[in-house]
Amino acid sequence: MPSSLQDSFPSTPGKVKIDRSHYNLSRQINRWLSSSATLVFWSLFLLALTASFACLKTSFTVPQSHARGATTAAASWGGPAWEKQLRRSCETRRANAQVVLVTGAAGFIGTHVSLALKKRGDGVLGLDNFNDYYDPSLKRARQSLLARHGIFVAEGDINDGALLSKLLDFVPFTHVMHLAAQAGVRYAMENPNSYVHSNVAGLVSLLEACRKANPQPAIVWASSSSVYGLNSEAPFCEADRTDRPASLYAATKKAGEAITHAYNHIYGLSVTGLRFFTVYGPWGRPDMAYFAFTRNILQGKAITIYRARGGAELARDFTYVDDVVRGCVAALDTAQPSTGSGGRKRGSAQYRIYNLGNTTPLSVPQLVSILERHLRVKATRNVVEMPGNGDVPFTHANVTMARLELGYKPTTDLQAGLKKFVKWYLNYYGYEHNGKGKI
Ligand SMILES: O=C(O)[C@H]1O[C@H](OP(=O)(O)OP(=O)(O)OC[C@H]2O[C@@H](n3ccc(=O)[nH]c3=O)[C@H](O)[C@@H]2O)[C@H](O)[C@@H](O)[C@@H]1O
């Protein structure tokens, strides 16, 4: 990012380096004033001064501070070589091809969607901030995979309006596949601001750039099954109420649905929101249960399985990534163009929301049993009552609308999907079977 932009660039929540310079200063001054007559007085004075500095500093840093993750490396962009990479990445190889900006392209679903689009001849440009919410080396490995398929991932944050304007000025994108987000349900209690930063402020920044663009791209973006919150009637339909989120993560996704609706209404942006249901598969997210369970089982560590109060098992409508990718591509293909241009609405535009789930929820203990079979290792299960951390007891998608309007049909059950995931995991992390069925 050009340094001139640094000041106006909204804060990226990041690990806070504690500035101890004022403590050192106070120590030096203390030595200097070591006369016994004034020592007590100055010590008390400096103590008060130091404390007030510390308070001031805390009040500025608290909104950005967190124990782990979501720190973004300063990105640089621009220049002829960079522009050449954009141009190459956006080249198309079929008639009526789309040219798609994929945000969060180095993320799990972003990588799979980008590859699917590129393989059929669309132009694809990725955008990712490579934050450290989870191991960035996995994101870099996905970036290398994309590069091998001719997809360039520009490095930057969706809150960087100047970068977004540059990209949308430089390339006449037909679509934006917006997958960049702060994911994870329970991490929202650790680092709430990262959710506001990416899922609210970042979304608005992206929509601002899109509404000003000429042509305006159609937008397909990732909402979440978590918007159904505390609903108990299953399966979840798109028309069900979504005003009782159980986590801040869910609340920001719900906010995203409202925000995109406003931009659709005011500026004529074509918008399709996709409510994903616990998507899993190769190249997945290490913070998700299936991934973390696999890692712990292989390392001989106990896994924690949550159960609801009263003892009921938690269940999820686990959805295999290839099914979701087909849904994403179908959403792009059926998206009508935005109607505005250069910030002006010229007519009403399409606004859609679809569930993309599997339709067959399974319990978390069932997920673990399938993993045990594929890994041929028994898990040490530590079953505990679900803490009040934003989790919901179950999810279950009704996908009738997606089936009728997108031709969406999930075909991979959890057994088959986890088999592919485990195969990828063992290969990626260098595990080998010893020929006797053991790893
Ligand atoms: O579909 C969605 O809307 C959401 O799906 C997942 O959220 P979640 O369903 O909570 O997925 P996991 O974190 O993989 O948890 C799956 C299940 O395992 C349970 N779990 C998780 C972690 C753990 O240590 N033990 C455990 O039993 C959870 O309570 C949950 O029932 C993703 O992490 C969200 O980003 C996404 O938006």
* Rg, alpha carbons: 24 Å
Shape: globular
Termini Cα gap: 45 Å
Number of helices, where a helix is a run of at least 4 consecutive DSSP H or I residues: 14
The helix content is 40-55%
What portion of the residues fall into strands of 2 or more residues?
Answer: 5-15%
How would you sum up the major sheet? 7 strands, parallel
Summarize the structure.
By secondary structure, the protein is an alpha/beta fold. It has a domain at 23-31 and 38-62.
Commentary on this structure:
42% of the residues lie in helices and 13% in strands. The protein has 439 residues and is an alpha/beta fold. α6 (136-148) links the parallel β2 (123-128) and β3. The protein starts with a helix and ends in an 11-residue tail after the last helix. The model is unreliable at 1-69 (pLDDT under 50). Bound molecules: uridine-5'-diphosphate-glucuronic acid (UGA). The site of uridine-5'-diphosphate-glucuronic acid (UGA) has 19 residues, from β8.
Keywords:
single chain, 439 residues, alpha/beta, seven-stranded parallel beta sheet, two-stranded parallel sheet, 14 helices, 13 strands, 42% helix, 13% strand, globular, disordered N terminus, binds uridine-5'-diphosphate-glucuronic acid
